[in-house]
Amino acid sequence: MSLPFYIVDVFADKRYAGNQLAVFLDAENLSSEEMQQMAREINFAESTFVTKLDLENNKAEIKIFTPAHEMQFAGHPIIGTSWVLMNKIFKNEPKQITLNVPIGPIAIHKTEDLIWLKAAQPKFWDIFAKEDFTVFSNLKNHDFENQFPIQEVTTGSAFVMVGLSSKRALENLVLDKDKTDEWLKKNCKTDHRALYFYYLEGSKLFSRMLCIEHNQLVEDAATGSASTCLQAFLLKYHKPEFEMINHQGDYINRPSQIYFNGKLTDNQFDIKIGGKAQFVAKGDWEV
After folding, report:
1. How far is the C-alpha of 73 from the C-alpha of 193, rounded, in Å?
2. How does pLDDT run across 43-68, given as a tens digit for each residue?
3. Enzyme catalytic residues
4. Which of 70, 209, 223, 264 would staple 240 via disulfide (CB 3.0–4.6 Å)?
5. Does domain 2-118+276-286 correspond to CATH entry 3.10.310.10?
C-alpha cells in the first residue's frame, strides 16, 4: 500500500526554517502502531495522518504523532496540515476549514499568507518556585523575571511557562537532562511534559521549548500548542488584549515566527495563533 505525503516547513518565512512537518493522506486504514512507526522513521517533531476527509464541507480528521507518542493537540501540525489541505487538496483553496483532533474540532481560517487556529479554553495548573529550576539548569535567581508566576498551563497539551529576565539568559540556557526528566515526571500533571522558557521585552517575545523524548533532551523549532498556552498566560497576567510575534527556534538554526492575536473578556479567552507554511516536497510512502 502506498500513501501520498507532503512535507512543509511551518511558522516559517522561507523554506528550511520553522518546524518541519510530514502530512500523510489516506491514512484511515493505518493502525496507531503503524502511524507511530512512521512518525519515528521520519523523525520530525510531529507528523500528521489524515484519517477522514470531507471534501464537500472542507473538513478533515487527523491524528498527530511525535516520534515518541500521540498528541491530543499540537499547533504546528494543525497549521501545516491545514496549509496542505487548503492549497493542495480542497477545491478552490478555501479560506476556512475545520480540523477534528482528539480534543475536538479546531476552526481554521486564512488571511493572506497566514493560517490561523483558534485554541480551546486554557486551564491553569500548579505554580512552582524558581528555586526548583536552579537545581536542573544553569539559571540563577536573577535570571528569572519576577512579575509573573511560573505555572503549568494547558489548552490541550500542557507546558510549564518559565519567564526569564533577559535574552542572554534564554540564549545561554543549559539543562541537565536527567534532573530535568526527574522534575518533569514528579511535577507535571500529564504524560506530555515540557518546559516553555520565554523572554518578554515590551512587544518583543522570544521563546524556547525543551522536553525529554527517548531519553534525549529535545528542543523544538516552533511549538504552536505551547504558544497558545503562553498567549493564555500573558492574557491572564500581562494584559487582556494584544497582538505580537513569538520568535522561537533561533538557537537551533530554525528561526520561526508564531503570530499571536489574543483577547480576554469576562474570563473567556479568545486565543488565536497564526503562521506561514512553506511547501518543501511531496511523495509516496510505502506501508
Report:
1. 13
2. 999 999 999 999 999 999 999 999 99
3. 46
4. 264
5. yes
176-217 confidence digits (pLDDT tens): 999 999 999 999 999 899 999 999 998 899 999 999 998 999
pLDDT for 1 = 87
> What is the C-alpha R_g of the chain?
18
- Give the C-alpha separation, 169 to 172, whole Å: 5
Helix (H, G, I), strand (E, B) or coil at 120: coil
Report the distance separating Cα 261 and Cα 269, nearest Å. 11
Q: Select from 237, 255, 238 the least CA-distant residue to 246.
A: 255
What's the grid cell of residue 214? 527517548
Pairwise CA distance, residues 20 & 254, whole Å: 9
Q: How many CB atoms lie within 10 A of CB 1?
A: 8
Question: Tell me, which fold does domain 123-274 have in CATH?
Answer: Diaminopimelate Epimerase; Chain A, domain 1 (3.10.310)
Greatest CA span in the chain, whole angstroms?
57
**Spatial distance between the Cα atoms of 107 and 17, rounded to a whole number of angstroms:** 25
- pTM exceeds 0.90, yes or no: yes
Q: In the chain, where does the domain assigned CATH 3.10.310.10 lie?
A: 2-118+276-286, 123-274
